[in-house]
Amino acid sequence: MLSHFSDIRERAHNLSTDMRRGKFQTYHMSEWPTFDAGWPREGTFHLLIILQPTWDDCQQLLQVLFTIEEKERIQVEAQKPSPEQVWPKLRALYETGPPPDPHRYRPGDWVYMRRHQQQTLQPHWKGPYIVILTTPTTLKVDGVTPWVHYTHVWPADPHTILKDFVPEWKSQSDKDNPLKLRLHRSHLPH
Questions:
Q1: Residue ranges for the chain with pLDDT beneath 50
Q2: Any long-range contacts for 169-176 (C-beta under 8 Å, 24+ apart)?
Q3: What pTM does this model have?
Q4: What would the pLDDT profile of 90-119 be if each residue is shown by its tens digit?
Q5: In this structure, is the dihedral angle defined by the CA atoms of residues 165, 168, 174 and 177, taken in order, positive or negative?
Q6: Residues 55, 16: contact at Cβ < 8 Å?
Q7: What's the rounded Cα separation, in Å, for the pair 157 and 160?
Q8: Could you tell me if 93 and 56 are in contact, meaning their C-beta atoms sit under 8 angstroms apart?
Q9: Residues 162, 175: contact at Cβ < 8 Å?
Q10: 64/52 Cα distance (integer angstroms)
């Protein structure tokens, strides 16, 4: 884990004479033989065995010996759930039954969106909007920035929509990245 042990050892050596706090102490290189610990061999770090620090002591050690990036990486690894925590939850999910059926909306469909903050005498649904993209649970509709959950839309009758309201869409591939696709809406005549 510590491929850069010589850097850590040098930092610890430079800081060890200044740091003496309660139970957690780092000793100067000349003091190690006094405690029959010896200096750690390259690639091993026996500080936990020698001092038996508490969690707070380990946090102090993190602040002294590691850079910000190293600390963040260590804390992310420590917060990852272990397989013993994950597998029972996954088993419970799979045993509840099959996944729900996907929604029926496709790109090109017209939908009304639920209005969450409704004023007096204002309809419950706004739109109609045309569906541009879909995922298994959400829709991207024209004219609305965030993605919308499929349970918050209602299908609109495409025959009742005025022809002047229907925009035309054009796709253009990206010059630098062939996996990117850019969608452009043509301007409607007013």
A1: 1-2, 16-25, 31-32, 42-44, 46, 48, 189-190
A2: 169/132
A3: 0.40
A4: 888 878 877 777 889 999 899 999 988 878
A5: positive
A6: no
A7: 6
A8: no
A9: no
A10: 17
Q: What is the pLDDT of residue 4?
A: 58
Question: By the 8 A CB rule, do 124 and 115 touch?
Answer: yes
* Contact status, residue 132 vs residue 107, Cβ threshold 8 Å: yes
DSSP 21-43: ETTEE---GGGGGGGT--PPPTT
Buried b (16+ CB within 10 A) or exposed e, 78-108: eeeeeeeeeeeeeeeeeeeeeeeeebebeee
Q: What are phi and psi of 143, to 5 degrees?
A: 90, 0
SS3 content of the chain, % helix, strand, coil (to 5): 35, 20, 45
| The token pair that represents 9 in the structure block | 């050892």
